[in-house]
Amino acid sequence: MTGTAKDERPTVTEPAVTGLTDEQAALIRSEVGPNAVRSHRARPLAVLARQLRSPLLILLLVAAAVSFFVGERTDAVVIGVIVALSVGLGFANEYRAERAVEALHEHMRSRARVLRGGALVERDVTDLVPGDVVQLKLGAVVPADIELTEVRDFECDESVLTGESLPVRGKPGDTALMGTVVTAGTATGTVSRTGARTSFGAIAAGLGEGHAETAFQIGLRRFSGLLVWVAAALTAGVFVTNLVLGRPLLDAMLFSLAIAVGVTPQLLPAVVTTSLATGSRRLTKMKVLVKRLVAIEDLGDVEVLFTDKTGTLTQARIALRQALRPDGTPDPGDTAGPFRLGVLCADPRGSGPLDDALHDALHDALHGGAPLDGAGAVAGEWTPDSYRRIDAKPFDHERRMASVLVEGPAGETLTIVKGAPEAVLARCRAVPGESRALVERLFAEGARLVAVAVRPGAPELLESDLDLAGFLVFSDPPKPGVEQALQRLAALGVTVKILTGDHPAVAAALCEKIGVPAAGVLTGAEIEGLDDAALSAALPATTVFARVSPEQKARIVSVQRSGGLDVAYLGDGVNDALALHRADVGISVDTGADVARDAADVVLLEKDLGVLADGIVEGRRIFANTIKYLLMGTASNVGNMFSAAAASAVLPFLPMLPSQVLLNNLLYDASQLAIPTDAVDPEQLARPARFDLGLIRRFMLVFGPLSSVFDLAMFALLLQVFHTEPPLFRASWFVESLATQTLVIFIVRTRRTPFWRSRPAAALAIAVGAVVAAGLALPYAPFASGLGLAPIPPAILGTIAAVLIVYLALVEAVKRRFRTVPAPRERHLPPHHRVHRRATPFSRSPRPGLPSDRMESTM
Predict the structure, then answer these.
(1) What region holds the Cation-transporting P-type ATPase N-terminal domain (predicted)?
(2) Cα separations (Å) of 610 from 300, 602, 621?
């Protein structure tokens, strides 16, 4: 919290208590711009520039230019066209992914309470302008720099800016800074600065686009590094060998570069971004919004899900079931008993999602919407308006209660306190034994229970020496279908644990109703007495964590992650923000508190565990399809390029011209763009898998040489049996190499028998078939001679078909002795390192410090 700001800002008409009108706000916005730190827009030129930054592509363009000027114009044109097509494919897929991210950011809007023309309305925070009058309440992320004019027990967490963990109390004249989080009370103030002009905006602009890597990105980078070393070794060896053999320098350089391009999976970023963008669109249809595309991979890795109870396992339709006096007899509501006092203590504006729900339930009962069990309809002539509110303390998660000081119709003053029974009873002067027994019985039945106490005659609000007035009993039944959703998560290998502020008996009773085995229960008080080692040892046997504070929730998540498991946290309140930061995947809902939605990686449009299970399956499907592309690259690309390198050292001519190598690689890559649409076997979705570079390396060392053996056998047949000239030799190997490296996808895509027990997606089958057909047709095209190809006679075509059949059969046989896809990950593996996140204010920009929505090329 800072003092009144003295910085310059746009001149505006001083607003009256009615605030600005929409027309005035629009005029100011045209001058100062939207209240956004940075806009996320898909920029075609920026995407195109990223396609051209590959050093290999730049070298190829230089080589094409040199070829053109030394007279090799056909090669120059072919290389130029191939590079243009390769760049075009990458651009089309990445730009489409960028547009998908832009659509997600546009969908994820945050709202602020603002006075416009005298009416309190909700507006998108990006529409706020200097001069707007804004109201803030518990759980809100401050949407701009706001000069406070009216406060009520107002505190802000400024750790996002200062790193200071303790909240700062605000008073009139202070400035609540953009990006800070309201942790207590309410306030009203006037917007002084917006967007990049705020303190947060200056910091965020300095952070730019730097992002931490996820585990999957790290794995891709290491894989790419492996191939770069292989490519460098092959390129250098081929270049030196060709020079030693006396071949022209330009030919040697072009062929070496073509080998390098053939080894490296040029379209790996495009395949990954296409998979992620396709997955994000599917998830949006499933009511799952992914704020960072790469979080889809993390979602598929989840092994433990911590979740709150209300709204996830229950219907979140809180209804007042009973109002009971301290002795357990019903309160009819016509006297100053727990019902009337509870209504008076409910803040009409609410102080958070839970308080709003209790307020609505009480007022539904007051107006006859929900008669009390055993007490008949609520009667009486009184109304809340007959009492004047003097002071109030809103609910917070430390005190676990709310209180008000009111003046009655006869001038008497009352301090009314309602909240968790343990907290309220501890402040009462005397509590009958029958009241404590009543509390235990109701908790054992699974009821939501609120205690109400009063202190008459106090001149100020004092939460001590209270008289117990009774209890309010609320019901929140289990959500329909939650048992099936939990069973589905269990089948996916995801363990569900409950973190709640409710009483342990309430949570345990709910677990019994929905079929969750409550193996163990830990309370916040018990957790306080455990160090991290003891808590870690207790986690496997504990299902319910009750009466836990926000800090304890975050600690439980951190300790669980330290055990090597990938952890997701599902929550929608301000008290969930810390835990959302600490989890591998933070999950909230679009109706949750601002700070919760802002901290989350994934936002559910429907708070349903079944929807979340869909997201987990989709994450695993995308991971499995990405691995297919990597295994293909190691099974075929490396082998074919090694064959070309070896042949260039022993043949009197190049086995393929540089342009032919590039064209072969382009056709191969084009066939793989359909991999993101491929079906995935159920066993690959049943458990989380992890990126295993050792598996990919072993796969390369087994299947790469196997591919080369068949290539060299084909070379021998072409030279010794068919006595082919260079154009026919190149055409024959062009067709054979393209067919082997594309058709092998049907083998490596599954552990099952191809086509018989595991059918590929129609799009993939069509793409691969079209590419093989195109490669077969090229030697017969009118321009074949310009490409250095010659028509292939039937005898050689038959030989190619025989070699292909034997090769694919052998790959299938070897595959059965080799694990072709990553197995489900083992428990207690070392955790991957991730940067803990902080919440940022709502804007149309990615959050600073997070992995990019775009999969960067690591070539």
Answers:
(1) 10-72
(2) 14, 15, 17
Instruction: Count CB-CB contacts under 10 A for residue 172.
Output: 14
Interatomic CA distance for residues 477 and 486, integer angstroms: 16
* CA dist., res. 856 & res. 293, Å (int): 12
- Model confidence over 497-508: pLDDT tens digits? 999 888 888 888
Q: Give the pLDDT mean for 484-491.
A: 90
CB-hemisphere CA count at 13 Å for 324? Answer: 21
1-210 fold = 2.70.150
Fold of 319-474: Calcium-transporting ATPase, cytoplasmic domain N (3.40.1110)
> Going by DSSP bridges, is the β-strand pair 133-136/181-193 parallel, antiparallel, or unpaired?
antiparallel
Name the amino acid, one letter, at 488.
R
Burial annotation 765-802 (CB, 10 A radius, 16+ → b, else e): bebbeebbeebbebbeeeebeebbbbebeeebeebbee
Residues in contact with 395: Cβ distance below 8 Å, sequence separation at least 6, in sequence order: 138, 351, 352, 354, 355, 401, 402, 419
One-letter amino acid for residue 153 of the chain: D
Q: Which fold has domain 290-314+479-607?
A: Rossmann fold (3.40.50)
Q: Is there a contact between 376 and 332 (Cβ–Cβ < 8 Å)?
A: yes
Neighbours of 105 (CB within 10 A): 19
User: For 150, phi and psi rounded to 5 degrees?
Assistant: -145, 130
Percentage of the chain exceeding pLDDT 70 = 77
CA-CA-CA-CA dihedral for 166, 170, 174, 178, to nearest 10: 60
H or E stretch at 603 = strand 602-604
As a whole number of angstroms, the distance between CA 645 and CA 648 comes to 5
pLDDT digits (tens, 9 = 90+) for 316-362: 677 888 899 999 999 877 677 899 898 888 754 444 444 556 667 77
Closest residue by Cα to residue 485 from 634, 321, 356, 607: 607
Tokens encoding 283? 């998830």
Residue 775, token pair as written in the block: 């490669």
Give the angle 51-55-58 at the CA atoms, nearest 5°: 75
Distance CA 748, CA 624 (A): 11
Q: Which residue's entry shows tokens 């995308």?
A: 622
> Catalytic residue positions?
308
Task: State the SS3 of 815-851.
Answer: HCCCCCCCCECCCCCCCCCCCCCCCCCCCCCCCCCCC
CATH 1.20.1110.10, applies to 214-284+617-815: yes
